[in-house]
Amino acid sequence: MKGKFARNNIGLILLVLTVLLCLVQVMRTQRQLDPPGKKVIRIAFWQLEAGYREAMQAMIDEYQKLHPDVVIRQMPITERLYAQWLNVHLIAGDAPDLCEMGMATLTNTDQPKIRYFTPLAEPLDQPNPYNAGTQFEKLAWRETFIDGNRGQFSDSLQEYFAVPTSFYGAGVYYNATLLAAAKAEAGIDTPIPPRTFGQWIEISQAVRAYGKKRGKNIAPIVSCYNVANPSFLLEQYTVAFTAGVEPTVDANLDGRISAWETYAGFIQPNSVIAFESERMRAFYHTYKRLMGEFADGYIAMTRQDAMFRFVQGDAAMIVTGSWDAKSLSQQAGDRFKLGAMKYPVPVRGDMVTIDGQQVDVGQFVAGPMNSAGATGGAGYGIYKRSKHPEVALDFLHFLTSVKNNGRFNAYCDWAPAVAGSELSDLVKPFMPDPEGYTSEVMFDLSADLGAVYEGKLAQFLTGELTYPQFAKAMTEAMTNPTNGGDRAAARLHENDRTSVRNDERTLAAQTALAILGPETQGAMATEVPLPTRQEAAARAKKILLQQVRKNNGNESRARFLDVRGKELQVR
Amino acid sequence: MVVRRAVLNSRRGLFAFCIGSALMLGSCARQADTPEAHLVRGTEAIAAFDWDKAYVEFADARKGAEPKSELWLKATFGLANAAQHRMPASRATIEEARGLYEAVLAVEQNTPMAARSMLNLGRIAELADFFGDAVDLEAARKSYRGVIEQFAGTAFASEGTMRLAGSYISTFDRAETLKGIEILETWLREHPDEPMASAMYQYLGDTYFYPLGDYPKALAAYKQCDRLGWTQKGRQGGTYWRMAVMAERLSPPDRETAVTFYTKIIKETPTSGKAYESQLALKRLGAPVPPIELFPGAANMTASGEVRP
């Protein structure tokens, strides 16, 4: 009987044992992840560039030494997954305490942002306690950032939801050893790094000749990103060549050339921005001339290919950003000296061949694009459901103190977000320079026109289209009655109207809180603190003005009528 | 037998435990289900822009509240806001919101909630909330005028005035625009230094600039804003640029104003992107050129990475 009982129940016993074992394992893991008596904070980001995780861990280790009751765990997530991963966790209610903002929709758009992240205006108005004893001891935390934390401010919500930890800039890294050798062999006196477009072309030609002499295909320049993308390298040259038309094209005198103003300027007779105009011909031919110094197949080259060619010494210069400093310097090692520079633009006397004629393209250039509007990046927000929001905030204070932010960024050769922090030599050229221009024409008025522009420009740059063919294709696209500029203008008008309706929603939340919210901070027993009635009313006033000035989105309709002499056709 | 008894006992224990837990949970749930608790959760949902949740919470708060009590009024007002802004908006949701604001107004006449309800009724009339929604400017103006008269001297009346002027200006019809200007100017004559005056002057300046193209009057209005302080501090760089360029384009040019505002761009709004061009403009005008003090620690570097002296 006993034996039968044992036989019958052996499965059950095994099952119970397995469950117990699993339970023990789960409890052990849980204990490791969430040690008793410790406050655990998780910080998630997508920065997997060389050195970043090590830099973050160094900061975490130091913080934990100061606060033995705190455990901080970093959660590096590949950028391919970050957006989906974070969105899911935010919705599920178990997101990390500190999240890198951006990329994920729920961290980018106003309404989810206010739902999931802690407003930071109030702590940003107070000094950072970790700046005690420094020049920033009494300065508001917000003012200690190079950009005054403008980049993390939401205009429509009149709130901050993150603080930046690094600063980014785009530019060019160069193999200084290779450039010096090529220069010496060519017997030229071009400075290294080159300062002007002409010098850039000169040193590039020297590199090509240097490689050829050794039977090697050394590309003067490679790019990590699409060179026909209007918001990357192309933008630098668009600003340089078209900022000068701002006084003619900027109808509302706000110091910018909007998409609508580009179109309105473009359709004028003898337009200064017509593709046949001298200025625009000079612009596109100059850019094509520059592309002539890029590696073969540069249009399709991936970031990995570009990095590989550069670190192998098969390319002399690489167009990328400050975020690659550490990766590049590590890979360059002792093999070559790495340098960094900004994009050189043409100056008077820089000649480019256009239709067989040598043209001084510098005459059309106002100057380089400035970075006065540059803002800090790698911003971290505090998840509203964090169990220890005070610790999360304290760690942000620690990470962005003048001393630690410099050390953190120097560790990974990134640019610091906090003023007065130390700079590594490799990121110095990427720090913002307010000298230069910002206005530029934009032919990507709509998604349709943007796709045509990028495609046709790539064809022109690679020689598949001649300039007259490119100009004709673009002019036809811009004036196409179905999908051209008129249609884009209608879409811009629809966007204006939608923006007014969105403002209405944001405004309604503030005006309702000004009546239903707590009279004083904490007077209402809520899960997360709400703004006081007074704070909500102050925000509402700013949003009200912002919305009223949009005139229900009707200005775009009125301006269309002024310029086109006909009503805007809204579908 | 022993085993059986133990099992039975444990079953009874389990049963008692379940009953106890249910009672406890029930009492907790009852506590959390009070109209007051729903009202707080509804308010929290508004702060989180969760209009759907706000709608449910305010509806529950309203159901449990004594009709026409303060709690009921707050719940009705919150519910009206939630109905107005739930997505997707439809004729039904907007009509429901309108009905709820009117229900508030049937009980309250002189409170902030009444003023806001009237303003919101105006907004419903003025904006197209869903596809095919007709804009009714006359109905909107009637609501705004009601607020101006009934709440004279309050911030609600100022807001109503701005909304009323906006309902004319946003038509971009010249005659209507002039009516809007008249409303703004009348209010500003009577309240030149009130908290909303700067915002009103800015809107007045915008309107004189476009569609009216009256640069001297636009400049005069913007100068008043500058005197009073900008509503969106730090964001006035674009307007400073507009002022300086307008001043230069006047016939004869107003050099002094141009110099003043180019200088302000450099000193007060260097992040507007126009500081360098303002320096060039000041050089052209033969005026002193202040340095750009932006990006401390970075601004002393040139484009090629050299450190400036």
Written account of the structure:
The complex is a heterodimer of chains A (571) and B (309). Chain A has 571 residues and is an alpha+beta fold. Helix content of chain A is 46%, strand content 11%. Chain A has helices at 2-33, 52-66, 79-92, 105-108, 110-116, 121-125, 176-186, 197-213, 233-242, 246-249, 259-266, 278-291, 303-311, 325-332, 389-399, 402-411, 447-461, 467-479, 485-516, 533-548, 555-564; strands at 39-45, 70-76, 98-100, 153-154, 159-160, 166-167, 170-175, 219-223, 315-321, 338-341, 351-354, 357-360, 376-377, 380-382, 415-416. Chain B is mostly helical. Chain B has 14 helices and no strands. Chains A and B meet through helix 5, helix 19, helix 20 and helix 21 of A and helix 2, helix 4, helix 6, helix 8 and helix 10 of B.
Summarize this entry quickly.
Chain A is 46% helix and 11% strand. With 571 residues, chain A is α+β, with helices and mostly antiparallel strands.
List the SSEs and their pairings.
The complex is a heterodimer of chains A (571) and B (309).
Chain A: H1 2-33, E1 39-45, H2 52-66, E2 70-76, H3 79-92, E3 98-100, H4 105-108, H5 110-116, H6 121-125, E4 153-154, E5 159-160, E6 166-167, E7 170-175, H7 176-186, H8 197-213, E8 219-223, H9 233-242, H10 246-249, H11 259-266, H12 278-291, H13 303-311, E9 315-321, H14 325-332, E10 338-341, E11 351-354, E12 357-360, E13 376-377, E14 380-382, H15 389-399, H16 402-411, E15 415-416, H17 447-461, H18 467-479, H19 485-516, H20 533-548, H21 555-564
Helix pairs in contact in A: 2-16, 7-8, 9-12, 17-18, 19-20, 19-21
Chain B: H1 2-32, H2 35-47, H3 51-64, H4 70-85, H5 91-107, H6 112-126, H7 137-150, H8 155-169, H9 174-190, H10 197-209, H11 215-228, H12 237-249, H13 255-268, H14 275-284
